[in-house]
Amino acid sequence: MTKIDVFAHVLMPDFYEKMLMLDKELPTKMPFILNPVLTDMAKRRETMPADTRQIISYVNTNPEDYLPGKMAALLVRKANEELLAAVQENRDLFAGAVAMLAFNNIPESIRMIDDFVLTNKEVLGVQVFSRHLGKSLADPDFRPIFEYLALHDIPIWLHPVFDSRKPDNNIIFSWEYEQTQAMLDLVQAGYFQDFPNLKIIVHHAGAMAPYFAGRIDRILPENQAADFRKFYVDTALLGNSKALELCLDFFGLDRVLFGTDAPLGILPAGATEEISQAIDALPLTQGQKNQIFYGNAQNLFGGL
Predict the structure, then answer these.
(1) Nearest CA-CA partner of 125 in 134, 139, 140, 112
(2) Where would I find the H helices in 12-157?
(3) 52-82: per-residue pLDDT in tens?
(4) Which residues, including other chains, have CB under 8 Å from residue 19's CB and lie 6 or more apart?
(5) Rounded Cα distance, 181 and 106, in Å
(6) Using an 8 Å Cβ cutoff, are 50 and 1 in contact?
(7) d(CA 158, CA 156)
(8) Going by C-beta distance under 8 Å and a sequence separation of 6 or more, which residues neighbour residue 298?
(9) 9 has pLDDT over 80
(10) pLDDT given at position 303
(11) Which of 144, 151, 199, 271 has its CA 20 to 30 A from that of 125?
(12) For the chain, what is the mean pLDDT?
């Protein structure tokens, strides 16, 4: 059995070097990016969990926050090409790549979907963040991207970022709030109604949603509460079987995919073992556990 980790991160060296030129304080702002397993594929191979292939996406360093639209899109394109090359050169480690976009250049982002995502079978979708350019993910300016991705049945990976307006951001709780708020924004904007084919994979097991299922069901209109359950989620909770039970209760077995946030969370290479143990401890049949470990990903991405 080969597990498919749908949410694993990298920071490819050429792209990282260019981002450091734009912001030399990045390692201070985000100390986790100093983990060498993010950038060094030889170290990645040395620490790779057994019987696992990863779908890789960039950590949350986004050129759109530093460069005007044309230049941001150019750097994003080069970063995506570097990401694709890593998958092609390490097929035994990586099951696919998740592309970045530049939300300050919508036309070029759509072109990248056309000529990069749709033309490379190793590119399984795109990653978006809980906020872009200081705006809600559901801002009308960004709507054409979601419409185009839904039209072409391209999955979206949703990763949290801090809200720069808040002075008390922290890595323990803030990201989970921001991610949940982004989910709510998309639901209330009617995206699942307007784009029935929309597929969004939410990091960290759907963040706060499973824990607040009662509030979702009793406060939101019935159709929006139902739409909240249309997200797909990973299992990146650093373990915690009881929380994963709530996640399964809320989203359903078919929408929960093995994902670990590797190599982050537990040094040096992430929490793959701890999360695997938490899934093994769930009151499920082995067949149901295998759905989480690889079956749901194979179904969602057309086989891997």
Answers:
(1) 112
(2) 13-22, 26-29, 41-47, 69-89, 106-112, 143-151
(3) 999 999 999 999 999 999 999 999 999 999 9
(4) 26, 61, 63, 66
(5) 23
(6) no
(7) 6
(8) 4, 304
(9) yes
(10) 74
(11) 271
(12) 97
Q: Is the pLDDT of residue 274 over 80?
A: yes
Tell me which residue has tokens 């705006």.
135
CA gap 83, 76 in Å, rounded: 10
Residue type for 303, please? G
Of the candidates 65, 131, 61, the one whose C-alpha atom is nearest the C-alpha of residue 100 is: 61
Q: Is the dihedral of CA 43, 45, 46, 51 positive or negative?
A: positive
> In this structure, are residues 258 and 293 in contact, taking their beta carbons and an 8 Å threshold?
yes
The CATH homologous superfamily of the domain defined by 3-300: Metal-dependent hydrolases (3.20.20.140)
Task: Measure the CA angle with vertex 38, ends 68 and 69; round to 5°.
Answer: 10
> How large is the C-alpha radius of gyration of the chain?
18
Q: Confirm if 53 and 3 have CB atoms less than 8 A apart.
A: yes
**Which residue type is seen at 179?**
Q
Phi (first) and psi of residue 128, to 5 degrees: -125, 165
State which amino acid sits at residue 152: H
Structure tokens at 34: 């100093």
Which sequence spans correspond to the domains of the chain? 3-300
**Amino acid, res. 204:** H
Tokens of 131: 């906020």
Please report, as a single letter, which amino acid is at residue 197.
Answer: N
43-274-209 Cα angle (round to 5) = 110
38, 9 Cβ separation under 8 angstroms? yes
And the tokens for 201?
């994979």
Q: Which residues pair with 10 in a beta bridge?
A: 58
